[in-house]
Design a protein that fits this description.
Layout: H1 14-40, H2 42-76, H3 82-99, H4 103-113, H5 118-140, E1 155-156, E2 159-160
Antiparallel strand pairs: 1-2
Helix pairs in contact: 1-2, 2-3, 2-4, 3-4, 3-5
């Protein structure tokens, strides 16, 4: 598909999404609170909001402590704590959502904080980070193993090979956790 000269493909920018969310979420929260208040009464709605915030604070304390201990354990074992860091980020975001008064943010926060739904949130976080890194590679270009122009690389069935004249050695360790 060709586009007209000067026309750009519009991307959904995170700042625009955040601006729209900052405008829509409070309006939606108020609408839901009014609907719940009409259904169960104003004082019960108020008590329910306070109770969900207290429950959220307790869950965040418990799950945040677990995530912190898992991070420390991974570091003591000398392995990359990618999963533990992702859990910490997800628990932090979920906890923040739970502490904000409102039912929509409470549901979203619970989905992020609970141990059996956290893997889904972790996978979404990995997807977002992966797409962001891929976009950065496309913008800045990727380097290859050989750091030689692609037309000079010796392709084999196993991928690019280092040139015979190279004396550079990079030591490392491969850890496969799967």
């Amino acid at each position: 598909m060709t586009t007209a000269p000067g026309a750009r493909r519009r991307r959904l920018r995170p700042t625009r999404v955040a601006a729209v969310a900052l405008l829509l979420v409070p309006i939606l929260e108020i609408m839901v609170m009014v609907a719940v208040g009409q259904a169960i009464g104003g004082w019960w709605t108020f008590l329910l909001v306070i109770a969900t915030s207290a429950l959220g604070a307790w869950i965040v304390t418990r799950e945040g402590g677990r995530a912190w201990r898992a991070l420390g354990q991974a570091l003591r074992e000398g392995r990359m704590p990618a999963r533990e860091l992702a859990d910490g980020i997800v628990v932090l975001v979920g906890g923040t959502l739970l502490l904000i008064p409102g039912f929509i943010t409470d549901v979203a926060g619970l989905l992020l904080v609970l141990p059996f739904t956290r893997p889904i949130a972790r996978a979404l976080l990995a997807s977002v980070i992966g797409r962001h890194l891929l976009a950065q590679v496309e913008v800045f270009g990727a380097t290859t193993v050989t750091d030689r122009p692609t037309w000079e690389q010796q392709e084999t069935p196993h991928g690019p090979q280092r040139s015979e004249s190279s004396t550079e050695v990079v030591e490392g360790e491969i850890i496969d956790e799967d």
